[in-house]
Amino acid sequence: MKVNLRVWRQRDAVDKGRMVEYVVEDATEDMSFLELLDVLNEKLILSGEEPVAFDHDCREGICGSCSMVVDGHPHGPEKATTVCQLHMRKFHDGSTITVEPWRAGAFPVIKDLVVDRSAFDKIIQAGGYISVNTGSAPEAHATPVPKANADRSFAAANCIQCGACVAACPNGSASLFLGAKLTHLGELPQGQPERWERVVNMVETHDDAGFGGCTNTGACATACPKEIPLDVISQLNHDYLKATVGGRRKKA
Amino acid sequence: MSFSDYTVGAPVVDKAAPDGPIETRWERRKFGVKLVNPANKRKVHIIVVGTGLAGGAAAATLGEAGYQVTSFCYQDSPRRAHSIAAQGGINAAKNYRNDGDSVYRLFYDTVKGGDFRARESNVHRLAEISRQIIDQCVAQGVPFAREYSGLLDTRSFGGVQVSRTFYARGQTGQQLLLGAYQAMERQVNAGTVTVHSRHEMLELIVVEGRARGVVVRDMVTGEIESHLADAVVLATGGYGNVFYLSTNAKGSNVTATWRAHRKGALFANPCFTQIHPTCIPVSGDHQSKLTLMSESLRNDGRVWVPKQIGDTRDPREIPHEERDYFLERKYPSFGNLVPRDIASRAAKEVCDEKRGVGPTGLGVYLDFDDAIQRLGRKAVEAKYGNLFEMYERITGENPYEVPMRIFPAVHYTMGGLWVDYDLQSTIPGLYVAGEANFSDHGANRLGASALMQGLSDGYFVLPVTIGDYLASNKLAPVAPDDPAVVEAETEVRERIERLLSINGTRTVDSFHRELGHIMWDYCGMERTEDGLRKALELIPELRREFWNNVKIPGTGQELNQSLEKAGRVADFLELGELMCLDALHRRESCGGHFRGESQTEDGEAQRDDENFSYAAAWEYTGRGSAPVLHKEELEFEYVHPTQRSYK
């Protein structure tokens, strides 16, 4: 099949960037979208041009590296699918496909489709963990976790930290990501001692990193390739209020 | 140099090997190590390369202990290391099922599963630590699958008859890695760990015979930087991507360990690679990687091909009596749950007989029809729903309706840098953890044991043993302009300049694909003397062409993904040759290494314990000169080598 591509090209962080059009004549239905870009890149290299830079690694939809907006949708139009798992059989022969990087203030473009998502690591550093040194853990069965809580925790822990939620959000907020981590840890008995401290520190770091505020548009949950439920944001707001206005957070 | 040219050097001896009753060895080793005074730990600097389960766990634990840790990863975040993609689970001898499991049984299964080519002491330690790992992960908030009682659920995996595999849906790797990643980020916050993401290690710095640092490239700016330390840990994963197509991440590479090998670290058993039986078959030349379908599927899926050659009917129309459930037929007691090497080879055999299915004939069915009838579609969906969805996304076929098609693919490498019981390589101060070392899986790894080994090394073994080295050796600081540092940096710069200056006519990927074909054809599921000799002619030719004809656009002072790939492929082109040499010299079959010349009457792997009961540790002697083989004889005091049988 033949595909027309409009791809965002940007040399580096300071370059203004522009859309560039390419044609790939020999795409096949079984190709993944990233394999289509591989084919394009092989041609570009042989013709002496620089290939399109994009982040990717596992190509199985779990590492969260791949990050591009395809036809206006983070990861493309297919529901619950990372762009590495998007296949060309979902496109028509002759279609024109637009490819852009994540657009968000907190994710500056490094080159072409590659953006800097290190702000996510900073949010985790602020409290996205349970403080337990190696070797100090009690026997695993000492604390049963009701299945319902374990399942909700898992559903939130599904987050692959790709940033599609931020790219989809009109405010560039990372509330879905935040809510997912807070719900993952907050649903478990092990996560309770630090629960109130955690939410305040993570929210402050989120705001400082340049992410926007949440206005409940729900675009994040629609774009999320792992279908993180929107109610994790309710959990985030609930915990934040309890910790601050409700006074649960005890200042040391 | 002629390919079969190698010399045999002095045996390599594990000086840290403990003796005495096996169940006391790790305890006694822990008591025997010298300790670093807690007040001095903050003055000691350790570099950890790689942030997967082994590297992430080691960095976190060393940070908690108070050391100054600098961590590197090539990904944009440490949480993306390829441990993340492990699906099935992690083994632990908890015996929560009361089904007869024990530390000793896990030890026994792993030594046997490895086809008697692993060290008993290491494997026993791994089995002991397995229980602590589960405790640690649960405390960190890893959301393992649970039963309605609130207690942890387990499932069975290939090669064993107990249910000891803990799991988190089909993404156990991600959940365990998030535990390690979060523990490490906690230490970043505490100021003990510094993480450099988008940095790739390109050289090891060895000063006066000791590992004292690394040269890395900042993959965004292209800057070459040296980082110095008192000890270096490599936790950089396996080298399956030498085959181009594998289940590894696209970025997974051998460069860190290969550079260390060139600086003197012995590389052990490079030919021991694991071919995983349940992957989605190749669909065309554009294929960039292969996707694994978790081994857990073999708990309920039945593997079959048509009995008749050339039977191209829709699989649903082929009646049961015309199907060959070849694993159940050949291995009635383990059935579909035989170890990976055996399941893969059996699939290859039926495809060689032209009974393979799918458009390429390189595939077998994995059928859930019986499971759906027995358990109901809902139950199957609860267990495997996400895997079925993934399969459908990639192939466009619905596995609830049509049997899956699977074929073996390169998945894991048991070989790696040689390490002693303390995980120290033959370069003092260089420690190697996780898949990057060779130590625990012998010639074949059992399912759900990689996660166990990575976390065991990273959380529990290395943080103890590395202290012994640091407490026992007075290490003078290394000056940034030390000749060894300058030399390592210069080597890196010159290599990059040389790659960029070739400006030939072929892309890096085209060389990588060609290498992959050679490796798969001649050093894949079945190896023969003739094939390996052929590969040993082809690889050096390809390497020469690479260095004369590769085309890399752009410069070294920017994000340049072609340049990154070129450096990795250059190292794969050297490693591939050593793998073939190792496979050629080992004239026996064992585990994942199947030599056509060495099989039993019914086609099973035939070990030769008299001549090959050793780990083959290879020494690099310089470009174009023959490597030296150092043998480590393996002793089996507890599990006596027998012909592995899963019949």
Automatic annotation (TrEMBL), chain A:
<protein>
    <recommendedName>
        <fullName>Fumarate reductase iron-sulfur subunit</fullName>
        <ecNumber>1.3.5.1</ecNumber>
    </recommendedName>
</protein>
<comment type="similarity">
    <text>Belongs to the succinate dehydrogenase/fumarate reductase iron-sulfur protein family.</text>
</comment>
<dbReference type="InterPro" id="IPR004489">
    <property type="entry name" value="Succ_DH/fum_Rdtase_Fe-S"/>
</dbReference>
<keyword id="KW-0816">Tricarboxylic acid cycle</keyword>
<keyword id="KW-0408">Iron</keyword>
<dbReference type="InterPro" id="IPR006058">
    <property type="entry name" value="2Fe2S_fd_BS"/>
</dbReference>
<keyword id="KW-0411">Iron-sulfur</keyword>
<feature type="domain" description="2Fe-2S ferredoxin-type">
    <location>
        <begin position="1"/>
        <end position="103"/>
    </location>
</feature>
<dbReference type="InterPro" id="IPR009051">
    <property type="entry name" value="Helical_ferredxn"/>
</dbReference>
<dbReference type="InterPro" id="IPR001041">
    <property type="entry name" value="2Fe-2S_ferredoxin-type"/>
</dbReference>
<keyword id="KW-0001">2Fe-2S</keyword>
<dbReference type="InterPro" id="IPR036010">
    <property type="entry name" value="2Fe-2S_ferredoxin-like_sf"/>
</dbReference>
<dbReference type="InterPro" id="IPR025192">
    <property type="entry name" value="Succ_DH/fum_Rdtase_N"/>
</dbReference>
<dbReference type="Pfam" id="PF13085">
    <property type="entry name" value="Fer2_3"/>
</dbReference>
<keyword id="KW-0560">Oxidoreductase</keyword>
<dbReference type="InterPro" id="IPR012675">
    <property type="entry name" value="Beta-grasp_dom_sf"/>
</dbReference>
<keyword id="KW-0003">3Fe-4S</keyword>
<keyword id="KW-0479">Metal-binding</keyword>
<dbReference type="InterPro" id="IPR017900">
    <property type="entry name" value="4Fe4S_Fe_S_CS"/>
</dbReference>
<dbReference type="InterPro" id="IPR050573">
    <property type="entry name" value="SDH/FRD_Iron-Sulfur"/>
</dbReference>
<dbReference type="InterPro" id="IPR017896">
    <property type="entry name" value="4Fe4S_Fe-S-bd"/>
</dbReference>
<dbReference type="Pfam" id="PF13183">
    <property type="entry name" value="Fer4_8"/>
</dbReference>
UniProtKB/TrEMBL annotation, chain B:
<dbReference type="InterPro" id="IPR003953">
    <property type="entry name" value="FAD-dep_OxRdtase_2_FAD-bd"/>
</dbReference>
<keyword id="KW-0560">Oxidoreductase</keyword>
<keyword id="KW-0285">Flavoprotein</keyword>
<dbReference type="InterPro" id="IPR011280">
    <property type="entry name" value="Succ_DH/Fum_Rdt_flav_su"/>
</dbReference>
<dbReference type="InterPro" id="IPR015939">
    <property type="entry name" value="Fum_Rdtase/Succ_DH_flav-like_C"/>
</dbReference>
<dbReference type="Pfam" id="PF00890">
    <property type="entry name" value="FAD_binding_2"/>
</dbReference>
<dbReference type="InterPro" id="IPR030664">
    <property type="entry name" value="SdhA/FrdA/AprA"/>
</dbReference>
<feature type="domain" description="Fumarate reductase/succinate dehydrogenase flavoprotein-like C-terminal">
    <location>
        <begin position="512"/>
        <end position="646"/>
    </location>
</feature>
<dbReference type="InterPro" id="IPR037099">
    <property type="entry name" value="Fum_R/Succ_DH_flav-like_C_sf"/>
</dbReference>
<protein>
    <submittedName>
        <fullName>Fumarate reductase/succinate dehydrogenase flavoprotein subunit</fullName>
    </submittedName>
</protein>
<feature type="domain" description="FAD-dependent oxidoreductase 2 FAD-binding">
    <location>
        <begin position="46"/>
        <end position="451"/>
    </location>
</feature>
<dbReference type="InterPro" id="IPR036188">
    <property type="entry name" value="FAD/NAD-bd_sf"/>
</dbReference>
<dbReference type="InterPro" id="IPR027477">
    <property type="entry name" value="Succ_DH/fumarate_Rdtase_cat_sf"/>
</dbReference>
<dbReference type="Pfam" id="PF02910">
    <property type="entry name" value="Succ_DH_flav_C"/>
</dbReference>
